[in-house]
Amino acid sequence: MSDEKEDEPVLDETKKLIPPTPKEVRPVRLLLASTLPKSPMRRIMRDDVAEALAYGARPIPRSDAVAALQALGFQKTAAYKALSEDGRFGELIEHSQDGLVEWKG
Q1: Which is nearest to 54 in space by CA: 105, 104, 103, 91?
Q2: Cα 79 vs. chain centroid, distance in angstroms?
Q3: How far, rounded to the nearest angstrom, does the alpha carbon of residue 49 sit from its chain's CA centroid?
Q4: CA-to-CA distance for 7 and 35, rounded, in angstroms?
Q5: From first to last of its 105 residues, what are the pLDDT tens digits of the chain?
Q6: What residues have CB less than 8 Å from 92, skipping those under 6 apart?
Q7: In 14-94, where does DSSP find H-type helix?
Q8: CB contact at 8 A, 52 and 93
Q9: Residue 75 has what pLDDT?
Q10: Rounded to whole angstroms, what are the CA distances from 94 to 19, 64, 72, 79, 87?
């Protein structure tokens, strides 16, 4: 046996540092997106859009309406699609030239 400890790195013949050999090898656990718990998918409904647009109390900027839908738990892209003129609720939303939207449902 040599005077070297097992837990310390050593130098080989080419003067490269060799890390110590682990006493116990633990398997690495990878978290894949498919293994993560999925949140239940919700669709934006008419009542959600009406709530985000304050039930037509006043016109609000589209970005504020998107933020309101996001606060309700919806994704940004889904919110913009729902509030677009040719979107699912397009006939229930009044769009102005200055970027304001208002619930007319």
Answers
A1: 103
A2: 14
A3: 21
A4: 36
A5: 455 555 666 666 676 776 666 666 666 666 666 666 666 778 999 999 999 999 999 999 999 999 999 999 999 999 999 999 999 999 999 999 998 999 998
A6: 46, 49, 103, 104, 105
A7: 46-52, 62-71, 76-83
A8: no
A9: 92
A10: 68, 15, 21, 16, 12
**Measured between alpha carbons, how far is residue 76 from residues 9, 50, 52, 53, 68 in Å?**
51, 17, 13, 15, 10
pLDDT of residue 4: 52
List alpha helices for the chain, DSSP H. Answer: 46-52, 62-71, 76-83
The arrangement of strands across the sheet holding 60-61 comes to 60-61, 100-103, 93-95
Note the pTM of the prediction, 2 decimals: 0.62
User: What residues does 98 pair with on adjacent strands?
Assistant: none
Domain ranges of the chain: 46-103
